[in-house]
Predict the structure.
Amino acid sequence: MSLVTLKGARASLRRAGPAWYADPARLGLLALLVSAALCFLLPLYVMGLTSLKSMEDIRQGALLSFPAHPSLAAWRAAWSSACTGVACEGVSAGFWNSVLIVVPSTLIAVALGALNGYVLACWRARGAQLLFALLMVGAFLPLQVMIYPLVRLLAPFHLVGSLAGIVLVHVIFSMPIMTLLFRNYYAALPRELFLAARLDGAGFGRIFLQLMLPMSLPMLAVAAIMQATGVWNDYLLGLVFAGREHLPMTVQLNNLVNTTTGTRLYNIDMAATILTALVPLAIYVLCGRWFVRGIAAGALKG
Amino acid sequence: MGALCIEHLCVRLGGRPVIDDLSLDVDTGEFLVLLGPSGCGKSTLLHTVAGLQAPAAGRILIDGVDRTWSDPRERNIGMVFQSYALYPTMTVEGNMSFGLRARGLAGAEVRARVQRVAELLQLGSLLHRKPAQLSGGQRQRVAIGRALVRDAGLFLLDEPLSNLDAGLRASLRRELKLLHQRIGATMIHVTHDQIEALTLATRLAVMRDGRILQLGAPAEVYAHPANRYVAGFIGSPGMNFIEGRFAQRGGALHVVAPGLAVDLSDYALAGAAPTEGEAVVLGVRPEQLRLGEPGDEATLSEGNVSLIEPLGGHEVVWFDCAGVTLAAVTREARGFKVGDAVRFRIDPATVSLFSPGSGERR
């Protein structure tokens, strides 16, 4: 959303009047935006600096000062040798665990969401309205309420504490929002397209795969970005359902930061935190343009 | 191929009856036009025939087979939608071959059929473009082509020309008529444009409120409208309506109205025998109102010109006669001016009479 606002502000700065620096209203707007940006960037700046400092440097207590001898040692340690509880292998194991969780959770959730949306929007099956209403109720129930029943439900199938289990749980919890996204997108498409395909003799699968999916590229991008960042940032579900072998990066980061033995290694903590935040950050920076376009496409057609 | 028979069809949308006990027979090779105002049920009728809308009652037979509950793909119908509904992610070729591939035809056969239709509709150079890269007229032709490649016997056209500008509409209208003459398939064309209806139809059905008011050859519907609604809906400018009464004059039945009298000796009256003084509405087409032509003095009436609409080759003269505004179409510019007194004659052989209450033809 902030991307949209910034773009709008930039466009209005360019559009009217003589020069932006001669207009107090626009100078004020610019000042507001710059200070807001600084507020958000300052913690990142401090984290970045601290991660490059030695512990001795940090003990000087000057948060904003530049490191005396910048070094990547803390980064190396955070990635491969810092202790996360008993094991001392850094957050790299957690990184790969998170990748293993995020990729199938995203692919399956987006595919099922698109399929659900297609069925609800196009085929208008009996009870579709009721089902959709129930899904929406599901979207607004806090997921903490469902954790204990879900553990009891999955335990007999040996799905608690496994990769398949955590992926299944992520897919289940993403269904309401994924279905909502695609249902609304497909409902906004002209219905005559669907009818024309039916008359052309195409069936359920062909209409979905050859007509609807290629038309929903912007929404596929939006859904994938939302789901991937959401799953990556998850802590609670990973802690409960992933099991010791597949703890995601967020859980390992917490373990690393909260290890109480010995002194607190702020530089390693900071480096590990940035490493963990890097993936969603990269997704937004690289795919933000698609995200905005997908949202806008939906908005225009709806 | 392509004979359609509809028996006592009823369709409801959201509980509201949209089509009410409608029966219709369309023979092979006919070009039937369904004409009516928006909301009269003509598009719903088309969707029901195509199998996209379930009927509440009645039967639909295509080529003698009951298709009332068949899946759309089993009906072998080609349909052109008002919005064209071209698949936006596919090329023109992909749009046209989609239905063939869905029916499992071999690649060579698909290519041959697409090629043949592309030549027929002059789409050859556009085959690799996406719909967004086409003009309105080109999209329209692709939509028709997509319906044609399947070699369906029955084509349903849902206001296919209404999104085009006037010039393009006229030329595509002619193309459509030529196409029908060439392939000889059954076509059912829905429109609210009376010019389209009159020029294209071999048979014309005027619809209103889910019923067919009149079904017949366009010339028949134009010359002998079954009721006042049909009479007013077809023709531009619309038919003149003059309220009058039946009266005997010199031994012959006349319609008399303030300022005029029309001899009905040659008129075939429908319904009950007229009684002296019974109210009746006289309908006269503007081109059958003859202005200032020599003839029997007794049939002439008078009026005052209030407006002239020149249309190049001819003109529409509006004039007042005893408080009623009438329109007359002249064959050439006659040099009338506003305020002129004109004398006009009504040809008794071409008038229509309607009952003022029910609007039915008398």
The longest strand of chain B covers residues 16-26. The interface with chain A takes residues 47, 50-52, 72-73, 77-79, 81-83, 85, 87-89, 98-99, 102-103, 146, 150 of chain B (CB under 8 Å). The mean pLDDT of chain B is 90.
